[in-house]
Amino acid sequence: MISQCKQAARHALQGKWLFMAGAVIVLTFITAIPELISPATYNDEESLTGLQQTMDFATIILSALLLPLSVGWLWLTLSLTRTSRISMKTLFKPFTVMFWKSIWVSILTGLFIFLWSLLLIVPGIIKTISYSFTMYILHDRPELSAMQAITESRKMINGYKTQAFLLFLSFLGWFLLGIITLGLGFLFIYPYYSVSYAQFYEEVKRKEYGGDIEYMA
Predict the structure, then answer these.
(1) In percent, how much of the chain has pLDDT > 90?
(2) Smallest Cα–Cα separation from 127: which of 139, 140, 141, 110?
(3) Which residues form the signal peptide (predicted)?
(4) 33-84, pLDDT tens digit by residue?
(5) Which of 18, 27, 39, 105 lies 20 to 30 angstroms, CA to CA, from 192?
């Protein structure tokens, strides 16, 4: 299944590599805004001024408000697996169709993964994989609540977690190349991995449900 997903991703990306690289730049720039406007690092011994505390709080809030953008990236990669007609608007679609839900589900999954990671790193990895279909499921079944989508993700990927992990491992060489190129390689590696994982979701959905899940256009 892994080689099939990667091959399907390369096929889907034909003629779309530059578009997806541009989407990565937009995603990276916007999500970096809170860090760019955050106060300069200060010593622990230095007391925080009221302005610095306000800026820290504002940075946290802004970071949370931008969480739908990461959901939009997953929706964009999912859209690319299904149709050659993609738009940058998809990157921002969660802001208009499920703004608060996408924030809430992102916070919930992050919290659950953090709590499981406190036990040991392995449970944290397992739960990261278990929740990895959540945003795709919300795209296909927007009527579900955050907890319902998380639960459905756990059920759907059950029996496929090893393959999901092996898919990630198959990209380690590419990730190393991205580091060697000072991050520039990730403009193309990140779309390749993301579309491969979206295709993995499609394959699991097909095997488990025969692909019979309605999804938004």
Answers:
(1) 68
(2) 110
(3) none
(4) 887 776 655 545 455 566 666 777 778 888 889 999 999 999 999 999 998 7
(5) 105
Q: How far is CA 88 from CA 19, 22, 91, 93, 130, in A?
A: 9, 9, 6, 9, 28
Q: Three-state SS for 154?
A: helix
Q: Where are the domains of the chain?
A: 2-41+48-209
Distance CA 204, CA 136 (A): 12
**Alpha-carbon distance 167 to 5, whole Å?**
9
Among the listed residues 71, 25, 76, 24, the one whose alpha carbon sits nearest the alpha carbon of residue 195 = 76
Residue 100: exposed, middle, or buried by beta-carbon count in 10 A (0-12, 13-18, 19+)? exposed
Residue type, 90: T
Whether 109 and 134 have beta carbons less than 8 Å apart is answered as yes
Model confidence, pTM: 0.87
Residues counted in the chain:
217
97-133 tens-digit pLDDT: 999 999 999 999 999 999 988 888 888 899 999 999 9
DSSP summary character for residue 38: S
The rounded distance, in Å, linking the Cα atoms of 91 and 72 is 4
CA distance 84 to 191: 15
